[in-house]
Structures
1.
Amino acid sequence: MSQEENYILVLGSKPESKLPDVKVNKIYSANGAAERALEYKKKYPNIKHTALIGSKEFTENKNVKSRVINSCPDKLYCRSGRIVIPNELYNCELEFLSGKEQFNFQSKFYKFRGLDILMGEILFYETDLYKIIKHTYSCMTYRGFWGVATGFYSFLLALHENPEAKILVSGIGLVEGGHFYTSKDSYGYVSERSKKLINEGKLSLYNKYRNTSRCRVERYLISRLKKNYKKRIISLDDEMVKYGKVMKWEGQVF
């Protein structure tokens, strides 16, 4: 197998991220980053594309849903329950995971397995005692222990499904911020349930970006990634190289 055939591309939505100028064997994208798969395939066509989504994000966020549909993925992978599939995606291969299944899947990658996910959520999602207790209670009662966001989850899936490949990651920086398809200071998608709680005065959005807390969890969890997985990750983003301590892509980009 040639060097080119050993590469898998994983795409996130971090603004101003570049694409590797090399032919890969497969593409995985997270939520709205499916649009970036289209850009890559203009130069390197006919590559299988798996689009990963969160069920609520896809159902309620038109910004994400339209980009996933327009990318015409070969497979749609939903990590948070079943959804109604639009007609445009009926020819896709489909896979749905429950909250428990996605927790169990993540666990195999970390040194202390599920315990690392629990520690990440409890110790890093919030920063003061009251919020830590409140978040832990919500995880135990209805939210579940989510672990990583869909971008991080995408390269875990790529690692699992392609055990002999190097995983090129673009657009996942492990830092807070917006997406390439939103304004610079956009808080981002807020679920209908959260909107209802905000209107009732039961919830406040106290971070500038919605992914601030999740990024803290992810920086912990990538530090807990087993070495045999981490050594196969190559990032195009300086922030992920810094916080994830993974290899930096030194090839051409576009």
2.
Amino acid sequence: MVSLGTLVLPIVLSAVLVFVLSSLIHMVLGYHASDYNRLPDEDALRAAIRRANPAPRQYVFPYASGGADMKSPEFQQKMAEGPVGVLTIRPSGFSFMGKALGVWFGYALVVSAMVAYLASATLPRGTDYLKVFQVVGTTTWLAYAFGQVPASIWMGKPWSITVKEVFDGLLYGLGTAGIFGWLWPR
């Protein structure tokens, strides 16, 4: 068994690599640019939401509080008329990006630490590079990528976006696997 203490360097380096890779993916490669689109008459919609003053959280519309509501003729008509959607309201202001980047890096550290834990419990000291790469890469890909799929299944998130996010997760998994394979205790 390998102690987690011996994996601090690969944990931190892989989190940094994921952070840098995600920055390059979103700011340089730009293949996520089409993930979001402008709503028709955005200003009128923003004004209506501002008037309603919803708290920052996730909403679904039309809303039903349970199975009985879903069966009501009024709800059925709203579903048929549309629109049907999920809306996330964030707090207003510009402070979002810095905090989000910090939390994203923290998340990358947690993922790397959990992957390290699993690898340390299953792979002995001296495991060859390809075996470490296989275990760490698969685990990391699962951690970053496949949690995105339920949003397409249940919330209507476009599959084209989910496929790109799964691909991003594959890149993060490959990078993390390379670092752990390279720095695995001998």
